[in-house]
Amino acid sequence: MVATSAVVLLLAVGCSSSKTGSVATTEPATPASATAVSQPPAGVVVPSGPIKQVVADSGTHTVATLAADGRGVSIYPSIGMTAQTQPQRTIPLPAPAAAIAFGATGLVVAVPNAILTIDPGTGAISHREIPAPAPLSITSVDADTTAVGTADGKVIVAHRSGAVDTIDGLVRVDSLAAHGGRLIALDRAQSAIAEVDLSKKKFDGRQRAGNGAANVIADRYGRFLITNPRDGQLISFYGDPPVERFAFPVPDGPYGVAYDDTRNVAWVAESGANVVVGYDLASGMPIQIKQSPTVRQPDSIAIDAGGGTLFVGSAAGDGLQAIALG
Q1: Model pTM greater than 0.85?
Q2: Which segments in the chain show pLDDT lower than 50?
Q3: Domains of the chain
Q4: Distance CA 167, CA 196 (A)
Q5: Tell me: the pLDDT tens digits for 89-111?
């Protein structure tokens, strides 16, 4: 891994109730507006309404989409998808969801003041109350722990034992990523990441990530990969504490990001150009190895690495796309 020479800035984050008045903030990054599709999308496209988020689970070979209004989740098989594939089930939600993720117990869903857990096989929903009236993000930390990020800068950590921890100190928590028990929170208002110290119940190692960080994921090596559509970058942090290793230029509004842990390839969706680009990370620096045209406005992507498929959700309502990884 090669470190950049750029200075990484530590952020002094206030913890007052009016957080935006005590810290420097920026307008939170949003997806670039896509141009009209100029090439037929690669792979197959299943008709769908506008998609807010797509997630995939390699263990069960399942892909799930969250509707743009947050009111429903559709479940599909992630292997053998064709243009005629229908959802195995579409599940109405009792409240608009902010985000979804696969965990050890099923599909976890962040809705106001609750975590829903959906069994993809049956569609059964369980409900757990948490103090999060305005959730923005969710991830499974491990088999016993789920974390939810909120619009007022908190991470709510729900343990299977029944305990709930509230960790406060950011402006907002738009994206979460976990690896090996470690948890990283991304704050778009500060264009920054912070490690969540689950044992001490506080944020640690807060660092700037460009000027418009949008989403964070983790790869199998514990690298945290961040898209920055405003600056046109894919950024990597690695280590304990995490240190910036590269800020690689990516054009046309990189926003959605997913990692293929079988092939060690990071995929980035360029929302403004309707393409996904694969970067080999074996050398420690991204090397572009593949590019595929997508459905319009490809704001969310996910990978079933075992099934060998990349999924792209169109925020414009142009469908759910499945691309063979090869």
Answers
A1: yes
A2: 1-18
A3: 38-324 (2.130.10.10)
A4: 8
A5: 999 999 999 999 999 989 999 99
